[in-house]
Q: What sequence folds into this?
């Protein structure tokens, strides 16, 4: 039985607060944690499938053109080689998040350097790898593909454009104005687990073990690519070794493995090499941004301008949504916002953790620091002054708004000095020491979701959905949520995820997972409670369940009388999506030291205070924040994709040359959870936290660099050469 | 030549293909998939195992080079029923999220604490000689070959520090 709930109105009943088990929000260790720390959790390439052949992708060494011929015979005669596959149904890009249809196919048509063009299958990995390296390919190159995003005309994304009032006039007449240009480099998700698939056919039924974030969309993407019905496909992703956007859409390994397994008549495993993960899945677009801020004498904004140029391949719908939070974070009645996309032949641009805010917020919050200095106002105070009462463009109310509390609590916990600020106030040996801060904002997304909850006759419970846990804590929070609602120790709740044989979840992406799937589980549990209440003659709202018993003393096992009780919860966001502007908010504070001779920046300490609705597990939520702050350090200081200007290929395509933060780059971090209930966010009053922790954090570091050494830098990442060049004598 | 390798106390024949890395031998031939492949180039540390007491990136060495060696993988450090102290500490401190780098972090940390106990210096040490201590900075420096993209570093250091303090 399915219970459908479409949410048109805020829910401030806060029913979860009235439950008696007392486990929701508690900092429980992850329920799947023991499997992870002992190496017994199976990731997609690790299922023990017998007679599995090994496939290795071959990728293009031209930028744009056609594959004229592939010398298959030479390779087929090599030891162990079973097949060379260049089927037109193979996909040449990963699908964009929520695409719901196949991405670009036809591997014979090349659109970027590094695009998959064939798959070599052999008995062993070593044989397949060797054969793939020896595969002869003849191309016809279509020369002069545009590669430089600034050398082509950008396409305006009209739904992002906002023109209100007269920004030019506001800038000309304002007491204080800032007009600055920023650049950010491209980023890679660089999840630790490379994309990997094992495909296995049983007649016309296909099972693929794959590393994917959104099975509910991936199944239709795969079905579309193969021309199959979804009911003949099963996708399994029980453990996903990180995604960060790169596994939102079905990737090239999935389709290639499925086609190859059919062709060779046995299971096939395809694991992307680390270089392939970098070069043929997703990049975050580089950006060029212009920020214009006009403020009156008191520092209150009267004008706000944000233009951004990003890039993508021809035909891709995704445009890095740089302006996403700029639309509502600060007031200013004269507004001018515009996003443009340059069509170039670098690899596909798509979602990388916190698409939009991850690069838009560091620019905006850097510009705010410049304004604070010009206006002679403390940076925290400047932000407090400019929090709008309602969405400054749409006129909508905010669902909830914790920016002011985060700024204040964060400043206090950090020990923020609100006195006059000027650079180079502290020198310790070779190091200038300074502090900086920034606001955090990340739009709240929520999606349709279903989950089945079964109260078993033995008094335990099972939660089933094809939702994934990509390290976010889904297994654990759903056990806590069901435990809270049904009066069970979470250890009594088995959570089954990552398998399309279960009801469709929302997928993990856009920080919407917890609130969306949590709401579906909440609805299913509520329906079970209603049934239990009827049997006990108690209204559901009055029903108290704890430790497997009702308040009346009756225990669940006897109430179930030998039968399971199962309900499917179906959550659908309705008018709440349109009636409110909803976002998570926060504040970052950082102390850095900058070497006066080498320009090296080290982060001494960093703090983030975040408000994102109900906290479902304090341990896993804090970990998400820690992860976001860590990414902020990478954005600020080290992460940059570098492309060859001659052919557009990604040069630094591995973990030695693309610098993600390592242990020694990350100091002790502090997280302040500013808990709240957001009634318009979801029926469980929760918002997402997977991305908020990196939305603006890089600016806190950039602003601290300026405060430390006087180098005001407008290009991320702030590598030593850039710091030295900007450092005053 | 014995042509055998000891993995978690069990003897195994070395693979016939000389190109097989120790990592692929463990994961594929022996089915010990707790050791992870993150980059296959010695850049991420996910494949860290312990050979004769010393940590090593198993992707950077061929299985055939380990005739007679004793290898310990994450499966040899502890099991769900009987986890090691570091495994328990990682769980308690949430020293992971997706879990993919975790076996490498734990193998690395296990051997790293022994390196400190043996007074091996690091870049973070004030002196090349004398007694070494498992300070936060020492742990961060010595663990920097083990990447964690989820960004669990702060919790990993807390977990390792706790174990170091308890055993000090």
A:
């Amino acid at each position: 039985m399915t219970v459908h709930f479409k949410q048109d109105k805020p829910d401030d009943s806060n029913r979860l607060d009235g439950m008696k088990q007392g486990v929701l929000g508690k900092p429980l260790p992850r329920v799947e944690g023991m499997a992870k720390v002992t190496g017994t959790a199976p990731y997609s390439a690790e299922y023990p499938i017998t007679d599995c052949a090994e496939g290795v992708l071959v990728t293009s060494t031209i930028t744009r053109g056609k594959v004229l011929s592939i010398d298959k015979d030479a390779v087929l005669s090599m030891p162990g080689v079973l097949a060379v596959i260049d089927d037109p149904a193979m996909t040449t890009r990963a699908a964009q998040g929520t695409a719901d249809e196949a991405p670009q196919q036809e591997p014979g048509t090349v659109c970027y350097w590094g695009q998959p063009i064939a798959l070599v299958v052999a008995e062993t990995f070593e044989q397949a790898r060797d054969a793939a390296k020896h595969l002869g390919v003849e191309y016809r190159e279509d020369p002069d593909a545009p590669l430089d995003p600034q050398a082509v005309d950008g396409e305006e994304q009209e739904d992002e454009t906002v023109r209100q009032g007269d920004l030019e006039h506001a800038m000309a007449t304002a007491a204080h104005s800032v007009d600055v240009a920023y650049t950010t480099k491209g980023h890679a998700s660089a999840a630790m687990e490379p994309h990997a698939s094992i495909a296995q056919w049983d007649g016309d039924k296909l099972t693929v073990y794959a590393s994917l974030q959104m099975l509910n969309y991936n199944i239709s993407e795969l079905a579309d690519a193969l021309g199959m019905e979804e009911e003949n496909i099963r996708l399994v992703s029980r453990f996903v070794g990180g995604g960060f956007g790169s596994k939102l859409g079905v990737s090239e390994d999935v389709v290639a493995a499925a086609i190859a397994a059919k062709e060779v008549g046995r299971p096939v495993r395809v694991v992307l090499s680390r270089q392939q993960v970098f070069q043929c899945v997703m990049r975050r677009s580089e950006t060029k941004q212009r920020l214009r801020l006009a403020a009156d004498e008191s520092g209150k904004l009267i004008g706000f301008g944000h233009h951004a140029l990003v890039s993508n391949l021809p035909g891709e719908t995704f445009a890095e949504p740089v302006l996403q939070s700029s639309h509502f974070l600060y007031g200013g009645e004269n507004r001018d916002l515009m996003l443009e996309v340059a069509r170039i032949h670098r690899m596909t641009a798509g979602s990388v953790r916190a698409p939009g805010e991850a690069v838009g917020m560091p620019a905006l919050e850097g510009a705010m620091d410049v304004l604070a200095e010009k206006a002679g106002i403390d940076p925290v105070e400047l932000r407090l002054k400019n929090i709008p009462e309602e969405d400054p463009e749409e006129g909508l109310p905010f669902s909830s708004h914790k920016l002011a509390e985060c700024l204040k609590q964060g400043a206090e916990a950090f020990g923020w000095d609100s006195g006059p600020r000027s650079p180079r106030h502290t020198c310790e040996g070779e190091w200038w020491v300074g502090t900086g801060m920034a606001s955090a904002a990340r739009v709240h997304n929520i999606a349709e979701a279903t989950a089945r909850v079964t109260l078993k006759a033995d008094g335990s419970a099972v939660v089933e959905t094809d939702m994934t846990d990509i390290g976010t804590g889904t297994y654990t929070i759903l056990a806590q949520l069901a435990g809270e609602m049904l009066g069970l120790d979470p250890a009594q709740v088995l959570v089954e995820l990552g398998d399309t044989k279960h009801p469709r979840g929302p997928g993990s992406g856009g920080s919407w997972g917890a609130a969306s799937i949590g709401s579906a589980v909440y609805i299913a549990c509520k329906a079970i409670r209603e049934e239990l209440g009827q049997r006990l003659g108690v209204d559901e709202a009055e029903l108290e369940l704890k430790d497997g018993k009702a308040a009346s003393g009756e225990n669940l096992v006897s109430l179930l009388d030998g039968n399971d009780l199962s309900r499917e919860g179906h959550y659908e966001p309705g008018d709440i999506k349109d009636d409110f502007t909803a976002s998570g908010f926060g504040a970052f504070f950082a102390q850095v030291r900058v070497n006066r001779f080498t320009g090296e920046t080290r982060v001494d300490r960093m703090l983030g205070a975040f408000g994102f609705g109900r906290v479902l597990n304090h341990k896993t939520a804090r970990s998400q924040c820690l992860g976001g702050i860590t990414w902020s350090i990478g954005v600020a200081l080290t992460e940059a994709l570098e492309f060859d200007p001659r052919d557009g290929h990604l040069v630094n395509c591995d973990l030695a040359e693309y610098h993600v933060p390592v242990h020694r780059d990350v100091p002790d971090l502090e997280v302040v959870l500013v808990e709240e209930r957001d009634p318009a966010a979801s029926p469980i009053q929760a918002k997402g936290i997977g991305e908020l922790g990196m939305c603006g954090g890089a600016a806190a570091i950039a602003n601290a660099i300026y405060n430390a050494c006087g180098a005001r830098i407008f290009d991320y990442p702030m590598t030593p050469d850039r710091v030295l060049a900007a450092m005053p004598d | 030549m014995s042509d055998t390798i000891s993995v978690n106390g069990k003897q195994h024949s070395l693979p016939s293909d000389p190109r097989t890395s120790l990592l692929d031998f463990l994961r594929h031939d022996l089915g010990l998939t707790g050791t992870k492949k993150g980059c296959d180039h010695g850049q991420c540390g996910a494949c860290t195992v312990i050979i004769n007491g010393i940590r090593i990136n198993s992707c950077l060495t061929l299985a055939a080079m380990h005739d007679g060696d004793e290898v310990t993988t994450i499966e040899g450090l502890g099991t769900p029923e009987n986890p090691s102290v570091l495994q328990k500490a990682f769980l308690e401190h949430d020293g992971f999220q997706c879990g993919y780098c975790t076996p490498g972090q734990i193998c690395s940390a296990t051997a790293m604490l022994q390196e400190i106990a043996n007074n091996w210096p690091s870049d973070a040490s004030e002196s090349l000689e004398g007694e070494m201590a498992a300070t936060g900075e020492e742990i961060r420096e010595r663990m920097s070959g083990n990447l964690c993209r989820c960004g669990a570093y702060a919790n990993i250091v807390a977990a390792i520090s706790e174990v170091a303090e308890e055993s000090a």
